[in-house]
Write the structure tokens for this entry.
Amino acid sequence: MRLYKPRMLEWDETLTIIEKEQVVGVKPIVFITHDECTFNSNDGRKRIWIHNDKAPLRKKGRGQGLHLMLKQLTEKAIPAFEKAFPGCQGLFAFDNAKIHQKYAPDALQVGNLNLTPGGKNLLPMGPGYYRDPSNPNTILPQSMMGRDGRLKGLQIVLQERGLWPSGRKFLTQCSIPGDSPGERKPNPACKHATNANCCARALLSSQPDFQAQKCQLQETLEAAGHMVIFYPVYHCELNFIEYFWGRAKVYTRAHCEYSFPALVRIVPIALAQISDVLIWKYYQRTLRMMDAYRNNIVYGSEDFKKYVFTRYSSHRRISESELL
């Protein structure tokens, strides 16, 4: 975030854009965060007032859900952003969910290549590139498809790059003992190897073109002229939209009628009752959390709480203990 901050549009507590000098010819950045949320028809309050001799009769299960997320990124999210902020570049932030890390069908993935050409249920793969062994300053394109329309296979791809070893056996992928006697499974260390030559898949996956392969989400947004970042794993507290969803669920639980038609009616009201100023405050809180982590302050500690949640409106309201 600090890398993009000089170019980012920022708002004050009155939701007025803060004036700052922008570099001519460089687009201002607008930060957009993303997250999914599911509202369930039977998700009501956990605590209620009731007579001691009575028991609440509630439906079993959470009920039918209503899932809110950014669908059809290229058809809805990007056009909506470009209409709201013409001349700006979006910085889209996503969590590290597996669905966000999904690759395009033709992405460079060594797991889709067999040792020999072809195979069952294999999709076409896009082209790669490599350095000419005789002239390292020259980058050569490489098609992953043979003349017969089949995938070339690991051996042919590595031979064309001058990387296939001679004089020794070269496995498709290293394996380790499995969970049952006699079972073998792929070695997960090969997937994250760098410049490895233990097996064909590890060697090819360490090459620059395979290392540079981006997920489909990132490719789509960058093709539209925008940028993508991902939140750190297991740090949902840094995504301020989480507090937005939480606030909305407080409302839906308080007004739960335990039916799906009622849920469809209540959710838009729950979202609309959250003010823009409150959303701005959620965003400012997450920025303070990021600063706390940069200063090596442990989450949940007293120092963290003071750093993130303690705010003073003037020097006259600072307690004496804080000045010592």
Remarks:
- Residues 240-310 form one domain.
